[in-house]
Structures are given as C-alpha cells and as structure tokens.
Amino acid sequence: MTSRARYYDGVTARALEVAVRPSAVELEISHADGVDVVARWPIGEIKILGDGEHEAVPPLGRGDERLMVEDAELRRQIALAVPQLAALGAAKPSAGGRIAIFGTTFAALLGLFWVGIDFGSEYAAALVPYPLQARLGDSVMKELVAGHQLCTNPAGLAAINGLANRLAKAADYGHPVKVTIIRGGPVNAFTLPGGQLLFFSDLIGKAHDSNEVAGVLAHEMGHAVHDHSMKSLARQYGINQLLRVMTGGYSDLGTVGAGGGLLLALRNGRNFERDADATGVSLLEKLGLRADGMSEFFADMQKTQPTDGAAVAGIWSTHPPTAERIATTKRPPTGQPAFSDEEWAALKVVCGPVKENNPVPDRLREKPLATVPNAPQAKEPEKR
Amino acid sequence: MTDLPGPSDTTPPPDLTPSRPVYDGKLAELYGIYFRHLALMVLTLSWSRFWGRTRLRRYLWSHFAVLGDRFEYRGRGLELMIGFLLVLLMLGLYGGALWAVWEYVLHEQSIPGLGLFDLFTFSLFFLGIPLALVGHYAGLRYKMTRTRWRGIRCDLGGSAWSYGVKATFLHLANGLCGQLLTPLMSVLLAQPRISNASLGTQRLEFAGRAGDIYGRFIGYYFLNILAWIVAITIGVTAAVWGGKNLGITEKELGELFTNFTPRSVLVLLGLAFAIYVLFGVMILPLRCWWQAYLWRYLVSRTRAGKVLFASALSTRQMWGFLVLNYLIVMLTLGLGWPWVAHRSAKLIAGQLWLYGAPDGASIRQPAERPPRFGEGLLDMFDVSGV
What we know:
The structure holds 2 protein chains of 2 kinds.
Chain A: E1 3-8, E2 16-22, E3 26-31, E4 37-42, E5 47-48, E6 60-62, E7 65-68, H1 72-81, H2 95-127, H3 130-145, H4 154-170, E8 178-182, E9 189-192, E10 196-200, H5 201-206, H6 210-225, H7 228-246, H8 254-286, H9 293-304, H10 309-313, H11 322-329, H12 341-348, H13 362-366, E11 382-383
Chain B: H1 7-10, E1 18-19, E2 22-23, H2 27-43, H3 49-62, E3 64-66, E4 69-73, H4 77-106, H5 116-145, E5 147-149, E6 152-156, H6 160-176, H7 182-195, E7 197-199, E8 202-203, E9 205-206, H8 210-246, H9 250-255, H10 262-300, E10 302-304, E11 307-311, H11 315-331, H12 337-351, E12 352-355, H13 376-381
Antiparallel strand pairs in B: 1-12, 2-3, 3-4, 4-5, 5-6, 6-7, 7-8, 9-10, 10-11, 11-12
C-alpha cells in the first residue's frame, strides 16, 4: 500500500510530493512516482505532532523532518498498518458535541463560581488569621491618616474606645477595638480589618447629641463583628477572577469587567450596610443603652439633604436609601445614655477646644458635603 | 557579424505567479476549543490560560496554508507560564527594592498622601508602557520561533529592548507633535518587525519610507479634524434642539444616569445611537481609510527573496477588522472572540497576495537557538487573547 503526502526534509524548505509505504518497522518515503526512496523512518523514531482536534493535519515528525498526510483516508490506512501511529487515524471530534459539552460545563462552572463567591466569602473572611487582619488594618490606617492631624485628647479617646469595646464584648467580638479620630471632615467613619475604626471629628461635632455618635459607633461595630471589610476584599477578589475567566482574559474587556465588578460590589455594600444597621441597634439594646441615635442621625442627614442621594443613585449606591434606614433603625428614646455627660463633654473636645470663631458656614449647613455617608461612593473601605 | 543574445534574452522572466494563503478553519471547531479553554480557566482560576492559548494557536496556525503547505505552532503552555512567572519574580524583586528604598531612604521625608503602594503603582504605570512595548516585540519573537513552515523554523532577530526604547521614544514624540509623526513612527516601527523576521535563513526585506505616505496622511489628518468639528457641531446642535423639543429638564438630565426609568433608558439609548452614528459615519471610516492604506503600503514594501507581497484590503474591510471585531468582542463580553479570530484569519487569507514562490532548496534552518521561554512581559502588561 502506498499513500501520497508532502515531505519536508527539515534541513531546507523544499516540499516534496511523496508516496508513503508503511510497514511494521518503518515508513518508507519515496518520490511521488514511488521509485526513488527519499527517507526511511524507523517507527520508533516517529512522533505524531498534535492531534486531530487542534491540528488540521497532525504532522508526523522525526526531528526537524515532517510528513503531512492531508488525506484522512490515507491517514487511517497508515494508522491501521502501524499500531504505534494509531492516533493518526482518530476521527475528528464532533464540533457540535464539544460546544455542547464544554459550553454547558463552562456555564455550570460559572454559576458554581458565583455561588462560591457569594457564600464562600462569608466563611473565607473568618479564616484569615486575626494578626494578619490587624496588620492589614494597620497598613490601611497608616495610608488613610497620612497627612492628617489626629485628635489626641485622652479623655475623649477613652470615652469612645470604652463604648466601642463594650459593644465589642456584647457582640462576643473577642478582639480589642481601637478608634482613631482625624480632625476635620467629611462627616464619615470607616471600619478597617482587625477592629480598627476611623472617625472624622466633624461627625462628632455635627451630631446633635451623644446618642447619635453612639448609634454611628454601633453601626461601625456591626461592620467589625461581621468582618465586612475582609468579606468585601474576598468578594472583590472573587468577582475579579470571575470576570477574568468569563472574558477569557481579553484585555479590552477590562472596562466592561470593571463596571460589572463595581455593580456587584455595590450590591454587596448595600447588604452590608443593612446588616451593620441591624446589628448596631441590637447591640445597643443588648447593653440597655438608648438605641434611637442611629435613626436620629439618619433623619438629620435627610433634613440637610432632602434629595436622598442613595435613593437617586439606586443600584449605583453603596448604601440603602436613607428613608429605608430610618424606618428599620427607628427605636423609642428609652434606655441609658451611651456616654455619660463627662464622657460626652470630653469627646466633643477630643481634637481640642471648639473654636467659636470658626463655626460651620451656613452654606454647608444647608447644603451638606457631597461625602455624607449616604452619598454614592465606591472604592472606599467600609464606611458608615 | 555574430548576433549575440543580450542579457534580457537569456535571463528567464521572474516567476510572479500569484497565490493567496488558504484558511480552512471552522468556526464551530474553534468554539469547541474555546469553551474548553474557558471551562478550564474557571476551574484553575485562569492559570490554564497558557495552555488554552497554545491550543488555540495550534488550531489557527495549522489551518493556515501558504502555497499548499500548512503552518505549525510548536509552542508549549509550560513555556508561557514560566515566562509569566519570571516576570512576576522580576516585579517582586522590583517591589522589594522599592520597599527597601522607601523604608530606609524616603521614609523620613514622606510626602503626605503618598504611600508605598501609590509609589509602586505610579512607577509601574510609567514603567509599564515601555515594558509592554518590549513585551510586544519579545512576544512576537516567541510566536515566530514556535512557528514552522515546511518544517523550517521562523525567527525574529534584533533586540526587544532596543525596540522598546525606540517605540517609547517615537510614541512620546508623536504624542508631543499632535500625532503628526504617525507615518514616520509606523514605518520606523514596522522596519525592525519585518526586516528582522525570517523563515529559516530567508530574511524578509522592508523598503518602506515615511515620505511615501506623508501626503495621504496629511490629507487624513486634516480631514479628521474637520470631521470632528462637524460631528461635534451636529451633535451639540441636535442635543440642544432635541432637548428643547422633547421637554427634557435639567433635573431629568441629571438623573439620567442614576434613576433608571423607561424614558431615561430610551433617551440614553437614543443618545448612544446618535453618538455611534456620528462617530461611525464620520470619524471611523476616515480612520479605516488611512489604516487600510498604511497596511497596503507596508505589505507592498515587503518581500522575502523572490517572493513579493501585496494586499488589496479596502476601507470597508478594515472597518470590519478594526470596528466590527471590537464591537463583537465587547458586546459578547469576550464570547465572540473565536468569531473575531476566524473572521480575521479569513480576511488575511483573502486579502494577502504572494507573487512568486520561494526557492525552497536555498532556505535552511536558522542557526540561532530560539528563546526558551516567552511572552511574560506581554502577558503581564497586555493580556493578549492569542
């Protein structure tokens, strides 16, 4: 039996139409007329380079030499004659079948991956050792406070840290909590990994009473006890991976991927805020403290900003609508004050005495800062 | 008197038989490979991409034939992964060195608001541009050295680093000159990519000169400015007129992107369509006109020994290549990638002409050894599809 093929000698770029005569020990390759032998390939030295799925014609190779048998029937005959080259005769897999199998597998894996991110991050965050979380929190805190003036009044810091640690104990948090206060605005607070809370003094300065500050602090403790900052990191990493594999790593899809990832992250952000609100209020109630401060603070925000930024932003908001938060955190004005009068007085001057000659301008009272907590903002640590 | 035959009588006319490459891949087969690649990417958290990319290349290469002989791709996923890990290691060392400088030299003079991470990201952004260009050339070299035709290995000589420096300088200079150096940059960067390429011992030659294409470019340049002015004028006029007639208030305009109602979605769709039409009708065709011309010029100034090249790529085809392909990939979130690769391979096969055939006996294997690993920089700074 002879079969026609193209032979390349591996030394030059000559292409020869050849006839191939397979036997149990060798392939005899001769000129197309079958007279002059061009090469004899011992069977043991022949390799099939590739396969029928990826190569149009899997080349036969011996070092740099190549033999290309285009005719599928002739490849099958060689495969039958030489058992070592049986793979050469393998039928091309059905494209439709492979699309169905791998397409379905891909879709199913994507679904599983998403479920894994959604639920897995809940548990993965708790598995991160606390010292690592604390170190991460420290490094982020360093970045955040760089260039800012810190408030250092010991009595004020003791008051807020005392309440924070009482709340932590009530929640069985199990780690010390540290509150750092930066002088100035915006009216905001953050929770970092490792039980680190960051407050801006404007939040304390603009609160109507100590219950409002206690409400905000309890909300931040809600973030801390639920490990929201670590969970956010885990989710963000998972979502990035998901988008990366979904798009096959195609670089131009970065923007689309980033947009999708942001939306998913924001959705999680809103859920975290709801959790933190609920936990904060229940912690205050558990300690028998007044728990109406949180809703009062939200109500103040609503007064200063009648157009609810979070409601307008909808799916683009990191926070739920303020009206919803007021309704869900509404509690009667009962219970003990969270801060004693002395503690509250010390906290009010945690950054030093109030300068009466530098009041908040009226325009700011009427038009609150754009960075109030319920304004849509992305890419920030857990914030109130 | 003896009639001696002149040289023209004895020299046989050069063989300029025209031929075109043939691409015989099937879209369904490509999708079968691609879906397997995606499924493995999910399972391995994208670490299988090196092997997936290799499989896709094997398919595309082997379904592409010139003068009846198919190309072979003999790269390996492991080589790509090692290349990537080496670059990762380099970045790690760079990060370590930066940390040491930050900790022991700069820390005392810290700049407010600037942390170590900012410094790393910032410096990487500036280093990333030249490194991506170096990676582009090194990646091309890797692909060439893993490509065989008639059993002969292709090659790309020259230094990737000098290409990177040259390309960075030219991009910078072109940007500073308002893109007026584009023809010069195109020709100067095509020069090393083409004339350093070879099939075995047969090098490609490039005889392009920027002066040849400046006339067309200047025409494109000013037409492009004019087109932008007209497009913006039409756009602004239409928006103001349309806004007044549709009774859209300033408040509604502010809420367009945040508060989605059926009306705002319709307005946004209308706006997107209008921008697309203006941009698609006035700006992109002009750009494709220039790009098609540049491609035809670069191809026609390239030869491989006795083989000449030409292309008749039209503006419409370039539009399909640059714009439609981009839209396909974007709108399908990447799932349209095999379709794009298939379309592109068919376009190249249909629009590239070869005149003549190489003297196979005179082309031998290249003496240089191919690089052992590759594409790490390309993978790091420009995650390419294939």
